[in-house]
Amino acid sequence: MKRFSKLIIYSIMMISIFIPIESYAATNKVELEYLDINEVNPNPYYSWGDNPAVTVLDNGLILSVSDYKGDLTYTLGEYYNGKVYWKFPEAYDTGKKPSITTLDNGDVMEVHQGNGFMSGLFYNLGRYDENNNIDWYSVGNLLNPLYGGESSIESVDGTQVIAFQNPYNEIEYIMGVYEDRDFQVKSEGHGGLSYFSVTPNITKVDNKIIDFHKSYWNDGLWYTFAGINHDYFNLSPRDSVKFDDHGKDPVGLQLDNGIILTMFEGTRGGNSPTWYRTGELEDDTIRWTSSTFAQFDGTDNDVVQLKNGYLLNVHKDPNGPSLRYVIGTWDEEANRVWWWINGL
Description:
The chain is mostly beta strands and 344 residues long. The protein is built from two helices and 28 strands. The strands form six sheets. Strands 1, 3, 4, 5, 6 and 7 form a six-stranded antiparallel β-sheet that branches. Strands 2, 25, 26, 27 and 28 form a five-stranded antiparallel β-sheet that branches. Strands 16, 17, 18, 19 and 20 form a five-stranded antiparallel β-sheet that branches. Strand 8 and strand 9 (108-113) form a beta hairpin.
C-alpha cells in the first residue's frame, strides 16, 4: 500500500508536465518516427527525481533512467526539430544512482545501488520493443550488500566495464560480457583504478576508458586513463591527473570529432552552476582548450551525443525535484559548446 501511494503521488506530480500534450500536437506539425505524439511532451522538464543517466539506442531514441524515492524509473525520448519529446516515466525496479549503457547488440544494461547505505550493486538488462517500451528481461546482483557503492558502466568492444566506489573510498572495477541474454562476470574486485576517490564516471575513448572522479580529500577533480585487456579482463590504469580545483560529480564524453568533453557541478558561485571543459587527446593525457560556465544551473549531470551530432545534457533542477534536458551544439570556430535550454 505504501508503494502504491508513492506511485500515485509521483503520477500527480507528473501531470503538470504532461497536461498540454493534445493541444501541442494539434497546433504543431510534429512527425516522430517511433514515438506516438499523443504520448509525449517536449517540456524541458521531462521527469522527476535524482541522478539521471542517459544513453542513445541504435535507432536514435534516447533512454533516460533516474531514481525517485527508492524507485528506479525510465523514460524514452525522440529528438525532432530542436526538441526532445519524452514519454511518461515508468518504474522498473527499486534502488538508487543508476548508470546505463547501450550494448553492441542494441540492448541496454543498467547498474545501480540498492536502497540503503552500501547496499550492494545490481543490474538490469533491457531491450526496446515494438510497443515503444523497454522490456527489462534480466536482473541480477553484482556485489554483496556491504561492498558496492556508487557505480558507472561503459561497454567497449563487447566488454562491459563497471567502475564502483568501495567502502575504503577507492575506485575498483568489474569486467564481463553479455552472453545468453544475461551478464557474465569475468573478473571482479580489482582495485587500483584510482585511490581515495569518489563518484566514478567512466567513458569510452577510442579503445580505452577514462574515469572522471572527485578526490575523497576534496582536492579537486581528476581523471584516469586505463587500457583494456579483453582476453584477461583487466585494466591498465595510468597515473591520475588533476584537471580542476573545484567541483563535484564529473562526467565525460568523447565527441565524434575526437574532442573530450567533461561536465560537472561547480562549487564556486551561483546556484549549483554546471561547468564544462573541452580538450584534445595527446597520448594518454588531455590538453584542455576551454573551461566555462554552461549557461545553466544543474546537479547530477550526464551527457551523450545524439545520432545527429547534437549533444544532450540531462540534470536535476537545483531549485526543485524535476529533471531537465538541454540541447548543445559544438562550435568548431569558437572552440566551445552552445547550450539551448528550451530547444534549438
